[in-house]
Amino acid sequence: MEKTGVSVDTNELKIQTEKIQNLLQQIETEILNMLGDEFRDLNIASPKQLKELLFEKLKLTNKKKGSTDKEVLEDLIDEHPVVEKIIRHRKLSKLVNTYLVGFNKYIKNEKVHTKFNQSLTATGRLSSSDPNLQNISIRDELQRQVRKIFVTSSSEYSFMGLDYSQIELRVLAQMANEKHMIEMFNNDLDIHEEAARKIFKLSSSETVTSDMRRVAKVFNFGIAYGLSDFGLARDLKISVAEAKNLIKSYFETFSDLKNFIDQLILDAKQINFARTLSNRRRKVTQLSDPSFLIRSFGERIAVNMPIQGTAADILKIAMINIEKKLKANNLDAKMVAQIHDELILEVKKTDLKATEELVKSEMKSALRDLITTLNLNEEVKVDLKVSYSEAEN
DNA sequence: AGCCCACTCT
DNA sequence: CATGAGAGTGGGCTT
């Protein structure tokens, strides 16, 4: 993947750079005009100066000891019209500096060749640097446009993206042997909706509201991170008491999950390591620390590392098998990037269909292959699901 | 050079 | 070190 690289449309890069730079310039002028002459030397990119402006000069509400991060600013939008513009300025300057101008230094012969660091993360994931191709913007429509600068090497090729759906939650269901969750996955149900149905104790005829589904989704994501009542309350903007009740209800619903998580922490305490299904290990030293905060952090590591790490192991197995089979089948297709639960390949258009089937099949069977290759005493309980997409950039 | 803060992704 | 996990980069600022 490093050697193959990804082609860059340098003309598109130039056009987008100029466009965003103009927008940025415009907002900067608006901000300075709004504030008047006293602030003509203000550097909006300086958190220190911004803190002084917002909390000392403009006397806005200072709730998080001077922090000016997005969350704080969003709470202050109604207090002063400049706040909204500062948020926009931040977004655009990140976009232009990191994802547009920042790329130029990595382009060699119209391509970027990222590094995929293979022995760096604590869990077994890869990381990507110089440039990082695993954190290219996608959420916001304007920001996701930067993805257009990455193109195939000729019009005879397409990109193919294959994503595991809910890989970490499926891994958790597998490892915990959580019967309700396994059943939902294996019947291809909407996991957030079904979780909501159970948390809020609805009958099969009652409708899950979008609010209920949103709450369940936060749970399903947070559970692999060792979510706390405190964090959940903050996320959902509810009281800690309400959060406590929802957590209780969630674990009553998925009782095997609770047992499994407790067991992970006990195991880690005994051997001072957290480990994946395939026995990749991470030393955990915080579990007997006298500080509650540090101990809690150790517990979250003990829970998250086996889940995140097993998911990473599964994709690695898939990648090894895909590489072999693409060659064996003489397909004109190359992996170009891995983004934790997703592979991107550049594929000759005439080989698209065959490659899709091959890659999908290898990704789906990777858990089974991991178990049999390593002779693990484990059976496959949960199906893996893979979604597919195709594009010119 | 190195830390901090802010932003980006799964 | 830290009040859900794992990462990387850029600008400001201090040393």
Automatic annotation (TrEMBL):
Catalytic reaction equation(s): DNA(n) + a 2'-deoxyribonucleoside 5'-triphosphate = DNA(n+1) + diphosphate
BP-aspect Gene Ontology terms: DNA-templated DNA replication; double-strand break repair
Enzyme Commission numbers on file: 2.7.7.7
Keywords carried by this UniProt record: DNA replication, DNA-binding, DNA-directed DNA polymerase, Nucleotidyltransferase, Transferase
SMART domains found in the cross-reference section: POLAc
Location of the DNA-directed DNA polymerase family A palm domain: 143-351
InterPro entries: DNA-dir_DNA_pol_A_CS, DNA-dir_DNA_pol_A_palm_dom, DNA/RNA_pol_sf, DNA_polymerase_A
GO MF annotation list: DNA binding; DNA-directed DNA polymerase activity
Pfam families xref list: DNA_pol_A
SUPFAM superfamilies, per database record: DNA/RNA polymerases (SSF56672)
Family: Belongs to the DNA polymerase type-A family.
Name of the protein in its database record: DNA-directed DNA polymerase
Native source organism of the sequence: Zophobas morio
